[in-house]
Each structure stands twice: as structure tokens, then as C-alpha cells.
Amino acid sequence: RAGLEAAASGLVSPIRGRTRAMVLSWDKGPSEGKRQKVAKKPKEPKSETESYASLRLIQDAAKRIAPFAKLTPVHTCTSIDDMMSDETDKIEGATVELFFKCETFQKGGAFKFRGAMNSILQLSKADLQQGVVTHSSGNHAGALALAAKTKGIPSYIVVPEGAPQCKLDAIETYGGEITRCEATVPAREAAAALIQETTGATLIPPYNYGPVICGQGTIGLEFMEQVPDLDVVIVPISGGGMISGIATAVKGIKKDCVVIAAEPVGAGAYAADTFESKKRKELVDDLPVPDTIADGLKAKMGSLTWPVVRELVDAVITVTEDEIVAAMKIIYERLKLVVEPSGAVGLAAAMSTQFKEFNRKNPPWGKISKHKKVGVVLCGGNVDLALLAKLFAP
Q: How far apart are CA 152 and CA 155, in angstroms?
């Protein structure tokens, strides 16, 4: 406990925090007054999520994946900061600074490698020999194939129709065996189940899985080490694995740091299921799949991710397709970074009117109650160049 408190205060690195072993106490026996060794009772979980998503588990994941995953950089850009504040803000000293956590530089080009690697590293030797399987249309598929290649084990990847070609190419490059299926969740799950039955491979879900959540949570550990005084962190959301891990880490280190989910509303029918779930205080799963260029943000929250989002995510900001494209252009032109549409959703939210209004009304910082240091997770950079040319065409 002392190690965690020290990590929270910034005295030691949370990544290097130590797990406390079971403590044995000496108590008097029931008869002769002799002391006998009695193990303390294990503590009950403090919440329904602590058994699969906690600061300690994320710290353990950080140590586990350290030899394999990259510590990604944080970039800043004064010209984008200037876009965040109007003249009144500048006069009143309420300007906003953005800090970009660049998961575009992670192995595989996206944050997903962290969770995939953490999952594989916890398998038994017997399970490793049988390989791993997943169903995914994007970065988790490539990440799992790469993590499997790193450990020299087979990977079986179910990919629905409509997946970007660049992500299919990556899976093949990493040695994943691809099975195509219809673009529905039942079809994906059925194909993965059949592969499990015939190969004995272990299923590694893309987000609704404790080791994946904790692996993604290492982003939050690193971010808080790199910028300890962040006031808010904005994270794109889909199935919720990344934001569940990040929120757990961030809140465990700095409780008053605000965590905001950034969600595409979709080009067609309204599809902001995370926004509606937070609004109604119950998991909403009957909205359509969003029709969005952010192909990595089309999943829905699961039974493990929703409780974390419900308890730890402070707000949800929805963004339009035009806002996503505008944010992409700014990242390319100002930050000089390659980012996919899903990776730009966090900046789109930060630059939105919704965030400006939230920023003025809610937090306790600054002359006019403004967040001043805002972290934005750029979650991936695996973009189809043909799509990019189409999006940026005049």
C-alpha cells in the first residue's frame, strides 16, 4: 500500500511499484497461549472491477510487457494550443495546453499491441503451443498476430468483410492465418469458436478481457509519468478496453484528473451508445453500428468495460465525421504525424464546442474554471492511403 501511495504522490514511478506479498502474523493460540502462524484473510475486492482492472494489475502488466512494447512519446504543438483558446481566454490566463500521447509509434502502429502482448505472456506453456485466436476488423488483429510472432506461436485471425486492406496486409506480414466472415458479431464469434474447437487455440478478445484492459492501461501509467500534472485525459472509445485501462491507471494515480471518452456519432443513424449509456446510467446496446470513417471505433462496450466506464469516466463527447476529418488534417499539417481516423477522434473532441462548454462549467482550475493541461491519446496510425487521399481531396 505504501508503494501505491508513493506512486500516487509522484515520489516513485508507478511502473516500478511493487506488489505486496501475503503477510503472516503471529497470534496467540486458543489454548496454551503459544504463538502460531496465521495467514491474514485475503481482502475482498473494493469494487466489482478490481479483480480484473486495478492499478496494481496494470503496474504488473507494465513490468510484464516492458521488454516487448515501446514507451511511446508525448508531443506538444503551440500552434494547436493557440487554436484551443480565443482572445478572451488568453487575456484571462485560461489558455489550454494539449499533450499528445503518440500510440502511433507503438509496435504494430497502434495501442493494441500492449493488451495483446500482456494476454499472451500470461498463457501457460501448453496453451502457447496451441496458439491464439481472435476476431477483429483492425488493429487488435494485427497486434495479436505480431505478439504471437514475437513469442513464436501460431495466430488465427477472423476478419469480417469490409476491413481496411492496410490492416489485412499487416496481419499477413505478422504471420496471422486469416479467416474471412460476414461483418456481424454473431458471424465473427461463430468463426472464432470453430477455430478454437479445431485447433485448441486460446481466444484473446479485443477489449472485454482483463489482461487486455490492463495492458492498455499501461498507456495511462506512462502518460502520468510523462506529464504528472495533467488535468484531463481524452480517450477515443469503442468497446472500452483502452479507456477502461487508462481511466483505472489515471484515477489510481491522480484521483481528480478528469477522464473523457471521445465517441463518433456516425454519419447515418444516431449511434453514440457510450453517450447514451452514461446518460441513462445503464448499458445501451440496441443502437446501430456507427457509420463512420473511424473504422476502429465501431464496437460496443462489454460486461467488463461498461462498469469501469460507468464508474470512472467523467463525461462523453460525441464528434461528427467532419470534425474527425478536420482533426486529422490538423494532426498531419501541424504535428506532422500519421494518424488514422480513429486516432484523431480525441483531438476532434478536444477542439469541439462540447469540450469548451464542459471545460468552463465543471473543473476547479483556472480563473474561469478551465482545464489547462489536457492529454489526448492518438491511439493509432494504420491508415489506408487511398482513403486518406479521398478524405483530403479538395
A: 10
Answer whether 141's CB lies under 8 Å from 157's CB: yes
Rounded to an integer, the average pLDDT of 152-158 is 97
Question: 259-286 pLDDT, tens per residue?
Answer: 999 999 999 888 899 999 999 999 998 9
List the grid coordinates of 244: 477502461
Active-site residue identified among 137, 238, 244, 277: 137
Measure the CA–CA gap between 116 and 121, rounded to whole angstroms.
9
Known catalytic membership, residue 137: yes
Contact 101, 376 (CB under 8 A): yes
Give φ, ψ of 117 to 5 degrees: -65, -40
Q: In angstroms, what CA-CA distances link 33 with 23, 27, 28, 30?
A: 21, 9, 5, 7
Rounded CA separation 58/211 (Å): 9
**What single DSSP character describes residue 332?**
I
Which residues are bridge partners to 234 per DSSP? 260, 376
Compute the distance between CA of residue 359 and CA of residue 373 in angstroms, rounded to an integer: 11
Answer yes or no: 112 catalytic.
Answer: yes
Helix (H, G, I), strand (E, B) or coil at 42: coil
Distance CA 257, CA 312 (A): 10
Active-site residue identified among 107, 112, 300, 370? 112
How far, in Å, CA of 335 to CA of 338, rounded? 9
Report the alpha-carbon distance of residue 157 to residue 207 in Å, rounded.
Answer: 15
**Residue 99 belongs to what H/E stretch?**
strand 97-102
> pLDDT of 29-67, one tens digit each?
444 444 444 445 455 556 789 999 999 999 999 999 999
Q: Are 97 and 374 in contact (CB under 8 A)?
A: yes
Q: Which residue has the cell 503472516?
A: 24
